[in-house]
Amino acid sequence: MRTLIWHGWLLEGSGSNVAAARLSEVLRASGHDVLLVCQEGHPERYPWIDASGTAGAGGVSDLRPNPGASTGPGRCVLLRPEIGRLLPVFVVDEYDGFDVKAFVDLTEEELDAYLERNVEALRAAAGWHRPEVVLAGHAVPGPAIARRALGPGTYVARIHGSDLEYAVRQQERYRALAAEGLGAARAVTGATTESLERCVELVPEARGIVRVIRPGVSDHAFHPMPRRRALLDVASRLEADRGTARGRPISLDAEVERALIDRDADELDRLAATYDQDVPDPDAAARLRELAELERPLVGYIGKFIPQKGVELLLAGAHLARTEVDVLIVGFGSHRERLEALARSLSSGDTAALDWLGENAGMRFESARGRRPGVAFTGRLDHRYAPGALAAMDVLVVPSVLAEAFGIVAAEGAAAGALPLVARHSGLAEVAAELEGEVGRPGLFSFEPGPGAARSVAAGIDRLLSLPRAERDELRSRVSAFVAREWTWERTAAGLLEAATA
């Protein structure tokens, strides 16, 4: 079946990016002819992409094969819409080659130009591919672009969560744009009942055509492994990765210390922009090898370093926990150096610095004065390394402070055998409830958000790690098997194709 997927951004770094990549990969592996329309600038990194090019008002051009493509029953071509340098996003972060601006900060002229260029590109892409199925990502702008380019009733919309909270809820112009696109869709799909309820609350035009379709996990990549083996395997492959030379140099530690002494939050942000956030740290392999030789339980986080993800709650919670743990922090983003400063302040017991960070550096936590676990940052670990890092964790904390549609990293962690501990709100609560229901232990894998959340994280860590090892191993096996059985990309793809052809 000829399938077209419109996704406005990249193929890694966020849940929706990962979803677009995995869905395309699975459809190709199932024999479908896939056209992926997105802004990914490195198609050569993905062996399931057979060729790539561009699309715009002049048609499809610059099509070239991917020399590293694997063989398979289907085909996947990636086309980048010609939109210029401006890339609107829901949450501002660095994107190589683009001038990034939040949707809510766009002028009317910028928004109109962005939409028009995408409409032209999608129209050209569809004319070239002649799709039987079209999947348009997010509540905005994908469905409205698809409606303008292809007409009503020709596409299935896939909402996520950031689209609702950081655009539709914020401004009437995006509510109107969402109504235009969602109201004309064949179906509106979302990862959880909760996220679809939020969608219908904001965009009543979607009522009556919504359906829950869970995202999936690649069980061939995410599966349990012995901790030491997982860490050493990732370390060995990182040592062969030449790209790590562009990552965060260890010399920045001293500069973070100076910025902390000077109480200079702007300097912390400046430091975060001085190296390539898209690659692992040069010393990440050494840090993982050190962790492999330790015996304390390993608690971790993987994702973006932005205020909405609440990473400081994990750092503070690990210090407040009664259980002695080590902490592994994997990710990238503009708040990296603020988190580094927090970790240093917690380790040194500098209460004045902790108070300053809480008041002036966008941190949401009560000053933590407790144990002092070891904390290891690695920088970004992409799809090549993330499964091993997750498999090494005893507990994976997902401490987001704002609404999430699903929290795919929680499912990936569970598949890899890391016991999840997620904030009990939005779609995350639904994910936790299903995993807790599978093991018959309500509340085991979740914590109460809001005031006192760091102490709730600490209590959750203690609750999970106080279980006998044999019981923890049984829980790991059960949640991993549940995800591998129920939350697969094959099931996701089948559900979306059914929604598009019903």
Provide structural commentary.
The protein is α/β, with parallel strands linked by helices and 502 residues long. It folds into 2 domains: 2-216 and 488-501, Rossmann fold; 227-486, 3-Layer(aba) Sandwich (Rossmann fold), CATH 3.40.50.2000. Helix content is 44%, strand content 17%. The chain contains 19 helices and 17 strands. The chain has helices at residues 15-29, 108-129, 142-150, 162-168, 172-182, 193-202, 227-239, 252-261, 265-272, 284-292, 311-320, 336-348, 351-360, 386-391, 408-415, 426-439, 453-465, 469-486, 489-501; strands at 2-6, 33-37, 51-56, 59-65, 75-81, 86-89, 99-102, 133-137, 156-158, 187-190, 210-212, 298-304, 326-332, 374-379, 395-398, 419-423, 446-447. Strands 4-3-5-2-1-8-9-10-11 form a 9-stranded mixed beta sheet, sandwiched between helices. A hairpin with a 2-residue loop joins strand 3 (51-56) and strand 4 (59-65). Helix 8 (252-261) packs antiparallel against helix 9 and helix 11 (311-320) packs parallel to helix 12. The longest helix has 22 residues, at 108-129. It is globular and about 60 Å long.
The radius of gyration computed from the alpha-carbon positions, rounded to a whole number of angstroms, is: 22 Å
Q: Give the oligomer, counting copies of the same chain as homo and different chains as hetero.
A: single chain
Spans of at least 5 consecutive residues whose pLDDT stays below 50 are: none
Kindly report the CATH topology of the largest domain: Rossmann fold
What is the number of beta strands?
Answer: 17
Q: Return the domain count.
A: 2
Label the structural class: alpha/beta
Q: Shape, please? A: globular
Number of helical segments with 4 or more residues: 19
* CATH-assigned homologous superfamily of the largest domain: Glycogen Phosphorylase B
**How do the strands line up in the largest sheet?**
4-3-5-2-1-8-9-10-11
Portion of residues in helices?
40-55%
Largest sheet: 9 strands, mixed
Assess the beta-strand content as a share of residues.
Answer: 15-25%
What's the CATH class of the largest domain, please?
A: Alpha Beta
Distance between the termini: 15 Å
Query: What is the CATH architecture assignment of the largest domain?
Result: 3-Layer(aba) Sandwich
Mean pLDDT: 95
